[in-house]
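User: Quick one: structure for sequence A, then sequence B.

Assistant: Sequence A:
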Amino acid sequence: MSRRILIAGASMGGLRAAERLRASGFMGEIVAVGDEIHMPYNRPPLSKEALAAEVTHEAVAFRLRPAVADVTWRLGVPIASADLDAGAVRLADGAELAYDGLVVATGMRPRRLPTPGPARGRHVVRTLDDARALRGDLGPGARVLVVGAGFIGCEVAATARLLGADVTVVAPEAVPMRRPLGDDLGAALQRRHERHGVRFLLGRTVAAFLGADRVAGAELSDGTRLDADVVVEAVGSASNTEWLDGNGLDLSDGVLCDNALRVEGRAGVVAVGDVARFPNPRYDGVARRVEHWSIPTDTAKRAAVTLLADLALGAADPAPFAPLPTFWSDQYDLRIQSFGAPALGADDIRVLDGDLDGEVVVGYHDGGALVGVVLIGLPSAVARYRAELMRAPAAA
C-alpha cells in the first residue's frame, strides 16, 4: 500500500523536506499544505533587494526540481488542528487529511505591537504580500518609523533610505542588533546607518500611534512625538504551532524535538526549519530554535532520514546532528555574514581581523572556544573561519 507523507507548511522548509524525502528514496504520496497562495519562495530578499524593486513572486520563487514535480500542493488554506494519535489533520475549510508520516514546517509569523492607535499604515515583513503592501507605501519623502532594531528592522531601514524615505528607528535596546552581535559591533553598524541618514531613538518604546483612520505619527515612552506616514513593526516572531494544541506537546517555543528532529519521541512525526527546537551537540544539550537561512535545508536532510526510518522505509542516521547555523544580512553596500552561534559567546567577543569601522571579522567565544564569527566584508576570510568553526569539537 502506498504511504502518504503530509508536510504542514509550504515555504522553504516544506519544499526542502519534500526534496529530501524524494532524494532519500520515498516514492509514495507527498502532500504539502500551506496557508499562503504562493508556491515556495525565498523570504530574506523581502526586506532587502526585493523590497527595493517591484515585489514579484517570480523574483523570489524557488525553482522546483523535477523530483518534486508530483508533490501535491494545497495552498491558501491553513491547517486548523491535528490529531497525532489518529494520524490526521483538519484544514480550515473543514477538509480532513490522513497521513502515515508528518513533517511540521509551519514556521513563524511576525509579532504585532498591542499598541493603541490606527492600524492603516502599519506593516510587518514576513510574506510576499507583506512586502508588496509595504513597497506601495515607500518612496521619496515617505516618513518611515521602524519599530525594532534587529536585522529585519535595520534591513528595512536601509532599503527605505535607498528609496529616498526619511527613516527613524525606535527600539528599547541601547544599540541596534545588540543581542546577536554585541555592543561594539552593533554600535559600529549604527554609525554606518547614521552616515546614511537614519535616525535612531534607542532606549525607548512606542506608547501610542497617532492619527485617525491612518497612522500619522507616534508618541514614545519618554513623551517624544514623531511624524510618520509608514510604520514597520519588526519586533520578533511567534511560532505557528496552535494547530498542534491538544496533543500533549511542549509548544512553549516552537516544537520540541530530539536531536534527530523527531517531535518529542513520537515515531512518524518530525519538524524542520525555524519552528523546530532541537539540541545541537556542536554547542551543548540545550534545545533551541534557530531562525537562520541555512536551517530549513539542514534540518530537512536529517528529518527526512528520521521519518523514513520510523516508517520502516530506510535506515536511521546514528551520527549526531550538529549543523553550523549560517545567515547573512545586506544593509546598503554591506554584506554581513554570520557562522555558528554568536549569541552563545556574547560574554567574550574579540575583533579577529580588520577594524569595526571598516571590514572586520568578530569572534564570539564560550569558555575560550570560538563558537561563532561575524564578518563584514573580507570575503577571502569566509572559508577559513567557517572551516575553523566546523573543526571545533562538539560539546561534551
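Sequence B:
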Amino acid sequence: MWWIKNAQVVDPAQGLSGVYDVLIGEGKVLQLKKGLTEAEVKGECGETGWQEIDAAGSYLFPGLIDVHTHLREPGREDKEDIASGSRAAVRGGFTTILAMPNTTPILDQKALVEYVVNQGKKVGLAKVHPIAAITKGQAGKELVEMVELAAAGAAGFSDDGRGVQQGEMMRLALEYAKLTSCPVISHCEDESLAHKGVMHRGIVSTRLGLKGIPSSSESVMVARDILLAEESGGKLHLAHISAKESVALIREGKKRGVDVTAEVNPHHLLFTDEAVARTPYGTSYKVNPPLRREEDRQALIEGLLDGTLDMLATDHAPHTWEEKTNPFDQAPFGISGLETALAAVWQELVTTGILPIELLIKAWSMNPAQRFQLPGGTLKVGGPADLILFDPEHTELIDTEYLASKGKNTPFLGQRLQGFPVKVWVDGRLVHEI
C-alpha cells in the first residue's frame, strides 16, 4: 500500500484540483482526502502496512490513456513488440493503451485479438486493449465478426493505416458496431485525393519537390463519416485530425447531435510542414496525416480548447532506424511518441499557458476512458489505482539510450524536455520509477 501525501491532485472526472492525500492498495484507490491522518491510514493498512511518499511540489494525475498506438506485434517485432511498447507507455505516463490492428497478420480474428490481450497481461505493465479491424484483411470488402471480436476483448474497430474507401461499407460498419457498443474509428483519408503523397500539399512541398497530400483528402472523409454516423445512429471516433476544415465539420456535427468524438496528435499541435524543410532529412517529421500549415495548427489548438476535439492521442508509430534513414519519399510515415508526448505537450502548451492542466488530463484520461468504456480516467475511491506522480521540473535528454521503445524515430532526439512522470502505478503496482 502507498500513502501519497501533499500531492497536487488534478482529476476532472471529480472536479478536483488541489492538495490531497491519496491512499492506494489492493489495486484500487482507498482514500482521497485533504490531510489524511496516520490513524486513518492505520485503519486501512494496519500498523506498518504502507509506504509513504511526500509528493509536495508534484502533481498526481489519473493514469493517461492513449487510444491510438501501434505495437507492431504480431509480425513486426523488429519495430516494436508489446513488451517494449508497454515499457515505453508507462515511462510516458500511459497506464492504458489501445493497440491498432494493422499488424502482420491483421487483427481481424478472435484468436489474434485474444493473443494481444494475453500478451499485454503477460507483460504486466500498461493495460493493453486491442482495436480490431473493421474489414477482413483491412481490404475494405467484408466486415469482420464484430460481436465475436468485441467479446474477445476488442475495444473498438478501425482499418487504421488506410481508410474505408466505400461509403456503404462504412455505413454498415457503423450499423453493426452498435451491437457491441464499441466505437468505429475512422482513418479519414480519401486515397484518390491523397494519391500517394508524402507531405502536406502546399508551398513547402512545392519548394522541396515532394508530392503533396491535400487537406481535402482528410476533410472529405470526415464529412462523409459524420453524415453516415448521423444517418445510422452509430458511434464514430475520428483519428488523428490535422486540418482546419475537419475541425469545422466536427464542430458542426456535434451541434447537430451526431455521436462523434475526435482525437488530435501532439505532433500536429506542435509542428507544421515547415519543420520538414528545416531538417536535413526530415523523415522524423513524416507522418500521415501530414504536418500542415500554421493556420491548421491554430485551428487544432482552438478545437481542443473548445471541446470539438475530445482527446489527445500519440499515434505512436515506431519504425526501424534503417527505414527512417531512407530518402523522404521512401521512408515510412510515423513518429515514436509514447515516451515524449506528455513532456512535449507540457513544455510547449501547458507551461506557456495555452492548455490548462485540467483540460490536458480530461483529454488524455477522462474522455478516452468514457468513450471507449475503459476502467480508469479518474482517482475516484474504489476505482483502479492507475495513477502517475508527475514532476513538472524533471528534465530528460532524449537519446537512443533513454528510449525504451524500439522505435527511435522521434523529432525530439537530442533535445532535453521538461516535465515527466517520476512514479507510475497500474492497479496499485509501481511499474515505473525515476
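Residues 63-372 form a domain with the TIM Barrel fold (CATH 3.20.20.140). Residues 67 and 98 are 5 Å apart (CA to CA).

User: Thanks, that's what I needed.
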